[in-house]
Amino acid sequence: MASLALATFALCWYHLCTAQTFSDNILVASNNGIIYTIHFWEDGLQYSLSEVNRHAGCGTNPTWLTLESDRLWCLDEGLLSGQASINRFAVSPDGSLTRREGLNISAGPVQSVEIDNGRGLAIACYGGDPPVQGGITTLATTINGSIEGGKFLVLPPLESPGPEPAQTVARPHGIFLDPSDRFLVVPDLGADMIRVFSMQNGSGSIQLENQAKMLAGSGPRHAAFWTHNNATDRLGPAYLYVVSEFVSTITVFRAVYSSTSLALEYTGQTLSTLGNYSNATAVAAAAEIAISPDNRFLIVSNRNDTSFASPSSDSLAVFKICQSDGSLEFQQLARAGGNWPRHFDLSPDGRRMVVALQRDSKIVVLARDIQTGSIGNIIATMDIDSTDADGKEAGLNAAIWMRTPQA
């Protein structure tokens, strides 16, 4: 008994003395027009969340946050004001924001990515009520991020409407830079199409090169590229995983490069984002997709599937990526921590996930096993004030991590 007690004491002493302390800032976009900076504190098995800053400089409906170093881009979809915009903020180490500039843009921006080694920004614009077509906005920026000018490429009208009510016009819902940094891949939810654009570095011009047709009525929303950790050739092999909102599936494409173009070849694999629990597919609406920092797992969020009860919760699906051919194997359906997980983000070390629960107006931080890829329990949660001018809970759209190790 004495030896057991000594061993237990030694184990506890080791944990307390070796456990790292981290101070993480989480940026949250609320649909009431406010960007919140939330402090996540972790010390061993102790966790807390607290608000440290808020900024109302991103219009009426902040939709998407793109953070690069100390520069934050915030998209305002402009649903309430009728005028969308892109806004640039400087981010201090403590997470406070200073608005540097903004530019009015059109057609409902929903996702952005920096291009041309940080000298430009590409934005997927969802479009508006018909006949407002969606399109792609490209901005040229200076070395410090200041906007120099922009262009808007309208996507062509549909030959015929799709089976879903939203599929009457082209609706880009995401935009992604390929592994070679030469092409933009755009899931078009309205056209059931994945469009590939080439970029002319430094000019802000893009040109349609290829497109891959998706299942009618599937509604491709977001995507993620994957290349093998040991790949030495940036042009391949590479795979693209596309999550479709209306049918809650993941479709796997192989990226095929030539000297001047990128084509997408369907591998034959399409999986339910609910894994083996597909009874809720008809009402589920898949949303976000991301690859773990160690490049071994794929995670997707499901809205409105209510796969878990007591308490009710939507889900997060985990898939293992086969390192030989990029195929996926379902591994886990985990609790999202609440309702309508529109967006999530993995911490840089992969041990934590923050989930923005849009309709619950709260964020949750989940534990994650980096060895197995499995998502665990809630370790911290916080209600976020998303009350709009009419006194209604407008909900949350995005949450992303910042991490600062403490001495």
TrEMBL record:
The keyword Ribonucleoprotein does not apply. Gene3D superfamilies: YVTN repeat-like/Quinoprotein amine dehydrogenase. Keywords: Signal. Pfam families: Lactonase. GO terms for molecular function: 6-phosphogluconolactonase activity. Residues 1-19 form the signal peptide. InterPro entries: Cycloisomerase_2 (IPR050282), Lactonase_7-beta_prop (IPR019405), N2O_reductase_N (IPR011045), WD40/YVTN_repeat-like_dom_sf (IPR015943). Coiled coil: none annotated. Belongs to the cycloisomerase 2 family. This is 6-phosphogluconolactonase. It comes from Cyphellophora europaea (strain CBS 101466).
